[in-house]
Amino acid sequence: MTTNTSGARSLSSLLGMVPTLPGESQEQYRLSLDALLEELGAATVLQVYLAEKIHDCLWWIHRYSAQKRITLIAEMAALADGSHYLISDRQEHIRTALLSQTTDKKTTASMKAKSHTLESMQQEAMAKQLPAIVQLDQQIALQTKILVGFQRSYELAFNRKLYVERMELQNELLRRDAGSIRVQGEAPLYE
User: By residue range, what is the domain housing residue 106?
Assistant: First the structure.
């Protein structure tokens, strides 16, 4: 169960929600959420909730960015293999090599056989997958917009007490200033 340094518990963990998708590390999710809760100093239930929503937006942005990379690498592997319909062992090998950012003789030979370099494969893959990339970029932009809203809400929730104290001080100053104003022949407004 996720608990930050102030002792506030993660609402998602209390409700038994699993925020990760298959293939994602729940431990990495929890560690990054704990780090954000600590960084923001979330102590109240509302602050923890908003901090979790901020984290979820960041997590989705990361997912979409990773999906863009995987989409391009899958297309590059298909270009190097020459097959877009069936994933062959060679294509899987090329995909794995590209994901790990290594190229071996088999990968290089496959690229050369199709008259490609890493750069030309990347360019062609980007051109072929442009609609998918644009769609993912739109999702990233949407999550960023949502993130900004949650950040503003968090700032208001975190600083609510400060704002109330500031307004009370300003009101007191206004009362004091108004009380010191006298019109000739009239008594002070406040005493």
Answer: 11-179
